[in-house]
Amino acid sequence: MAAVGFVTVSAAWAGDRATSLPTAPAPAKSLSTVQRHLAGSQAEVKRLKQDLDRQELDSRRASERLKQQDQAIAELQRRLHELQAGPAPGSR
Questions:
Q1: How far apart are CA 48 and CA 41, in angstroms?
Q2: CA dist., res. 76 & res. 72, Å (int)
Q3: Which residue has the higher pLDDT, 28 or 69?
């Protein structure tokens, strides 16, 4: 009889313990909050991609301008060397 009483008390105690244990924590943020955050993050990523594309385009344009300027400088240097060398033989 004592054994049956012990099992009954143990089962009741275990049942009380199970109900008193904390359950899984509720999600900290609701789904709509997470979706809004995700949408904001996606918009920020899109804006950053556009900024990057614009900067890359600006960089390509600047690179092309520098290339053209280098070519112009090289042509001017070539002409300067020709002038400094004097008239070509037989041009007089």
A1: 10
A2: 6
A3: 69
